[in-house]
Amino acid sequence: MRAERVVSEARQWLGTPYLHQASLKGVGCDCLGLVRGVWRALYGAEPEEPGPYQPGWVEPPGEERLRDAGRRHLREIALTECQAGDVLMFRWRDHLPAKHIGIATSKTTMIHAHEGAVVAEIALAPWRSRLCYAFRFPDLPNEDA
């Protein structure tokens, strides 16, 4: 049930224009803003504010802000366990921290916000080699895992 609700909510964001640091369905969002908006729809208030960040998410060497936030609020899973409704994180290059995030809608597709485009559901195949972390949303209130 949780996965179905996550995917259903994420699909309601389709067509939302990309807007750096925004998180408003139909108005604008970035990749993190999409996940934040899905969280709010399913759980209520966000567990923390992300604070300001640059489009390139420049971080000191060795820091993984996106991954660390995922570990604080989501349940990390093995990449081989990914299924619809899971949060996927990607690196642009092997030596860089995770900088992009999307929501799996099946084993082969995801929804994400990408600069210069609108929120879209796309094939995961071109992104699979960049996939570095996967997380599952926590149980919904009154839901058994």
Explain what the structure shows:
This protein is an alpha+beta fold and 145 residues long. It has a single domain (2-47, 62-136), classed as endopeptidase domain like (from Nostoc punctiforme) (endopeptidase fold (from Nostoc punctiforme), Alpha-Beta Complex). It contains three helices and eight strands; from the N terminus they run H-E-E-H-H-E-E-E-E-E-E. The strands form two sheets. The chain has a six-stranded antiparallel beta sheet with strand order 3-8-4-5-6-7. A two-stranded antiparallel ribbon has the order 1-2. Helix 1 packs across helix 2. It is globular and about 40 Å long.
Keyword list:
alpha+beta; endopeptidase fold (from Nostoc punctiforme); 6-stranded antiparallel beta sheet; two-stranded antiparallel ribbon
The whole-angstrom Rg is: 14 Å
* Dominant shape: globular
State the distance separating the first and last CA atoms: 9 Å
CATH architecture: Alpha-Beta Complex
Number of discrete helical segments:
3
What CATH calls the topology is endopeptidase fold (from Nostoc punctiforme)
Main sheet overview = 6 strands, antiparallel
Q: In percent, how much strand structure appears in the residues?
A: 15-25%
Our count of domains comes out at: 1
Spans where pLDDT lies below 50 across 5 or more residues: none
In total, the number of strands is 8
* Largest sheet strand order: 3-8-4-5-6-7
Structural class: alpha+beta
User: What is the CATH first-level class name?
Assistant: Alpha Beta
Mean pLDDT metric: 91
The residue fraction in helices comes out at 10-25%
Strand and helix order: HEEHHEEEEEE
